[in-house]
Amino acid sequence: MSSTTAQRPSFLKSQIGGLPRPFWALWGGTLVNRLGTMVMPFTGVYLTQSRGLSVAAAGLVMGVFGVGSLLSQLVAGVLADRIGRRATLSGGMLATAACMLALGYSTSLPAILASMFALGLVIDVYRPASSALVADLVSAEERPRAYGLLFWAINLGYSVGMTAGGWLAGLGFVWLFWIDAVSSVVFAVLVWRAVPETRPESRQATGGFGVVLRDRVMVGFTLVALGNALVYSQTMTMLPVAMTSVVKLSPHEFGLAMALNGILIVVVQPLVSGWLGRRDPARTFALGLAVMGVGFALTAYVSSVLGLAVTIAIWTAGEIVTAGIPGAIVAALAPAELRGRYSGLFGFAWSLSAVLAPLLGGPLLELGSGALWFTIGGVGLASAAGMLLLGPAIRRR
């Protein structure tokens, strides 16, 4: 037997071994759900082409979705601590399936608005429950690797789902809604049958968010997470606009360059997640944030597909470094009975960034590419500095 062959089982064991069976059920459900995530990337196209809404009306619909999303993870965090992680996750997925089908068959603007608000309210309910489940099921030493594997599953599923969704949209948008709904139901059933309830019993779990908001370390970390989210959200808001409208790349060229992000994550992230998980979380997260900030700042100099690909490779490297670490930090900061709420507050930062990113990015891009990308890079570096300042407090936990 060659040394390479002999080393392969050891390498695989280091990447996937040592994690409990219920975690893999959660991982499998997450992958299936992301494989079926086809509606949201094509929502704008669906609203304008299939339902004939104006751009302004479509913007209103997406704004209503954002309002629901802002409330989603805060409510879900409370539910995960009060009624249980499994019930919250499975119930959220079933509600998502129902809202997907309601939106797919809505034809009037009032019905579409109601469906989109409801969808925004339930589509991310699973996130705090999922994060709390990982913290409950997996030892502290293995959590960075476990959260990193979930991150990998999400990106793998999303990449495949995006490709299939673009093809299926040509056959009819209703297919996207049905596949998304079915994948949500599969996730709900898999978790309900294969994942035990892990919520600890405690009187604290009946309270509100007061305990979380009094935790200054967690509030500080949430601000760092907001900075991280504002940087990354530009990939879905201002980056496409800047590259197609200012740099004059075609949509095909932009899509080709952006595919590099998914490829690098799928190929590289599993290879380094175990090693990164053994490093100091605060310093590692700060490094990833700084690399992301530099990558986005360099976007100011992009004038070709090759230049865009280089910057994408840089900030994707930072994204890979940060994968899995935030969830592990939140789990370390949170009392066991409040992990849902802590995860909900962390998720709220990402929901808020989806609203703030275009509001901040649009005016900055009007001032010029340099104004936008140097500011975004500065936000990334400031977040990295904040993470280093929080490091001693996090290590004491």
TrEMBL record:
One of its GO terms (molecular function) is transmembrane transporter activity. GO terms for cellular component: plasma membrane. InterPro entries: MFS (IPR011701), MFS_dom (IPR020846), MFS_trans_sf (IPR036259), MFS_Transporters (IPR050171), Sugar_transporter_CS (IPR005829), Tet-R_TetA/multi-R_MdtG-like (IPR001958). It is found in: Cell membrane. The chain crosses the membrane at residues 23-47, 53-80, 111-129, 149-169, 175-195, 216-234, 254-272, 284-306, 312-333, 345-365, 371-391. It is a multi-pass membrane protein. Residues 22-395 form the Major facilitator superfamily (MFS) profile domain. Keywords: Cell membrane, Membrane, Transmembrane, Transmembrane helix, Transport. The keyword Cell membrane applies. The keyword Transmembrane helix applies. SUPFAM superfamilies: MFS general substrate transporter. CDD domains: MFS_MdtH_MDR_like. It comes from the Bacteria. Belongs to the major facilitator superfamily. TCR/Tet family. PANTHER family: MULTIDRUG RESISTANCE PROTEIN MDTH, RESISTANCE PROTEIN MDTM, PUTATIVE-RELATED-RELATED. This is Putative MFS family arabinose efflux permease. It comes from Nonomuraea rubra.
